[in-house]
Design a protein that fits this description.
The complex is a heterodimer. By secondary structure, chain A is of the alpha+beta class. Chain A contains 16 helices and eight strands.
Chain lengths: ~400, ~220
């Protein structure tokens, strides 16, 4: 049996528009909606026949003004807000925020708390990427992968819920550690809510299933000729453009930028973990898909290693009940499933921050849309948009 | 708790370049970059190389930093330094404060933890900035956000004057310190019933002292 190289094959949708026709310029309004309802986005596209000549994204439908709200809330109250920014990976949003406050206060977080944060961050990454794995093929017309990917995501979310009490909005991180025992009172102050019984074994089993579903997705989607025809060579973003637009995370890595904050500036103890950073070469939709599939495998491996190394000890540093953060400014970032997520906090020494700037990954990742869609085909518009894996809450903040 | 963490942080950030690329400590790096862009002042607190530049040299400085190995356009935003605030806490010493906007742009490396914050002071009576969009396509949205939130004009931005997040008919600039938060005007923050007393209540200091005493009492019990 001869193997067809999909990259060498003529792009199927190109063939459909090879006939020259007079076409008037037309304005096509798309939305406000999101094909997989990750919030609300509107695109105003100028199309010439089947070609997109320009696209103007209209955002802000989900704007909640977190930067203003953070100025009138204490640091502890703001952690409840920040996990609503990118709600598909809520846990991962809390990490750089508490990290920034801890850095300003000069707090040392106990090792066990750091490992628990790392395990749950990687679970958030798996659950976020599995949403992509289910919705992206669906946007291209393949409904079956959704069932496989979402089933395993549900198990991962159940594990997250068993520890934190929330599937989407854990609000589990505290400045200096993780959440204290519910209703513990003053004599429980030194204890914190630890992992529930059976969590480690259940996680190990869930990771086996996650790795299985990655293989299933490879069989169902990655090698699928129709899927490749829609994605290979479509929406190519060169590395220089990606950096110019501040594109980060799996999207940038698909363009060959081998950069991962877990390696370069790790907030959590990733230096004790052995893992690979998957990169693509072509920067097309297909590479953006493959990189995420590989990242799920790496995340599962990180979780298993972290469980094997999980140290014992306290879960909270000693923190005063009313947090007063020393005067100063700091920017702390972490590798969110969508890319670089960071908080720039200016403290004037009080209980409220003077300014909080939220750097969210999807905002920059989406801002490249007008550039990448120019000259593309209308049917590829959804393929390219979906491949960027943005969440509108993360765009609008 | 109150110790200045800056020294240890510099060491942490310098070790942060974990992919094998040797990095000098942040202070040395900041000084080098300051000389490169001709900065008027620089600092390296909390591991951030912060360079103050002139408004006229804004674009040139960003290009120099980019071409010096920091091509990643991370973000651009502004800070409103104001003596009086409508909501939230004021600055520590309002009488000494020079009222101004600060526009900040962060560029970083994609090989190690190196990064630079370019900072420019913008007077409030002349809030105009040159746009970076000619060099960084990604600056367009960041500048439009800063423009609508703070009322700073970025001349040269292809979509200058168009709102990014806010409705077209929206008036005002919400992130200005003089801009009230209407939900707080209409109804006091329900969080006041919480254990902690909420900001802007007069007895915040008293509550803080009370809590500190309670903390001490608990510590005593533990020991």
């Amino acid at each position: 049996m001869t193997q067809l190289d999909p990259r060498a094959a003529m792009h199927l949708s190109d063939a459909a528009v090879s006939v020259e026709l007079e076409t008037p310029e037309m304005t096509l309004n798309i939305g406000p909606q999101h094909p997989s309802t990750h919030g609300v986005l509107r695109l105003v596209a100028q199309v010439d026949g089947e070609r997109v000549s320009s696209v103007d994204p209209v955002i802000g439908y989900m704007h909640r003004g977190y930067e203003k709200l953070a100025e009138v809330r204490t640091y502890a109250q703001t952690t409840a807000l920040v996990n609503r920014i990118d709600w598909v990976s809520g846990f991962a949003n809390e990490i750089p925020f508490v990290g920034a406050v801890e850095k300003l206060m000069g707090l040392e977080v106990p090792e066990r708390a750091q490992y628990i944060r790392m395990i749950l961050t990687e679970m958030a990454r798996i659950s976020s990427h599995l949403v992509f794995m289910s919705s992206y093929p669906l946007e291209l017309g393949a409904a079956t992968p959704l069932m496989h990917a979402l089933r395993e995501r549900e198990h991962v979310l159940e594990l997250l819920e068993s520890v934190t009490g929330g599937r989407f909005h854990p609000n589990f991180n505290r400045v200096g550690g993780v959440k204290p025992v519910a209703g513990g009172g003053s004599n429980m102050k030194k204890q914190s809510q630890d992992l529930p019984a059976g969590f480690l074994a259940a996680t190990d089993k869930a990771m086996t299933n996650v790795l299985d579903v990655c293989d299933d997705l490879d069989k169902l989607v990655t090698g699928n000729e129709l899927f490749q025809a829609r994605t290979v060579g479509v929406g190519v973003i060169p590395a220089e453009k990606a950096l110019e637009y501040g594109m980060s995370g799996p999207n940038a890595r698909a363009s060959g930028v081998k950069f991962d904050l877990r390696k370069a500036e790790a907030l959590l103890p990733y230096d004790g973990i052995d893992f690979e950073v998957p990169v693509g070469h072509n920067g097309d939709c297909f590479d953006r898909y493959v990189v995420r599939n590989d990242e799920i495998r790496q995340a599962a491996s990180i979780i298993r290693q972290a469980i094997a190394k999980l140290p014992s000890g306290p879960l909270q540093a000693k923190v005063p009940r009313i947090l007063k953060v020393p005067k100063g400014e700091v920017y702390v970032r972490a590798e969110n499933p969508k890319g670089e997520m960071g908080y720039y906090i200016i403290s004037e020494g009080g209980r409220l921050p003077y300014r909080v700037k939220i750097r969210s990954a999807s905002f920059s990742n989406l801002s490249i849309l007008p550039w990448v869609l120019e000259g593309e085909l209308v049917p590829d518009l959804v393929a390219i948009m979906g491949s960027l894996d943005f969440v509108l809450g993360d765009v609008d903040r | 708790m109150t110790d200045s963490p800056s020294e240890s942080d510099v060491a942490v950030a310098a070790n942060g370049a974990a992919d094998g690329t040797p990095t000098t400590d942040v202070a040395t790096f900041a000084q080098e970059m300051a000389e490169l862009v001709g900065a008027t002042a620089w600092s390296a607190d909390h591991g951030v190389a912060r360079l103050a530049v002139e408004r006229d040299g804004w674009v040139a400085a960003a290009v120099k930093v980019r071409d010096h190995g920091l091509p990643f356009f991370s973000w651009l935003s502004a800070v409103d330094w104001a003596r009086e605030v409508a909501v939230g806490d004021p600055v520590e010493a309002p009488e000494d404060l020079e009222e101004r906007f600060e526009v900040i742009c962060r560029l970083s490396s994609v090989h190690n933890a190196d990064a630079v914050h370019l900072v420019v002071d913008v007077p409030k009576d002349d809030p105009v900035m040159p746009s970076l969009t000619g060099e960084f396509g990604g600056a367009e949205w960041h500048e439009r956000e800063a423009a609508e939130m703070f009322g700073i004009d970025f001349s040269g931005n292809p979509n200058a004057g168009r709102h990014l997040y806010l409705p077209d008919s929206f008036e005002g600039h919400p992130l200005l310190k003089s801009y009230p938060l209407l939900s707080r005007e209409v109804k006091p923050w329900p969080g006041t019933v919480d254990v902690e007393n909420m900001p802007s209540t007069e007895n915040a200091e008293a509550a803080a002292q009370e809590a500190a005493q309670a903390d001490e009492a608990v510590e005593g019990e533990d020991e």
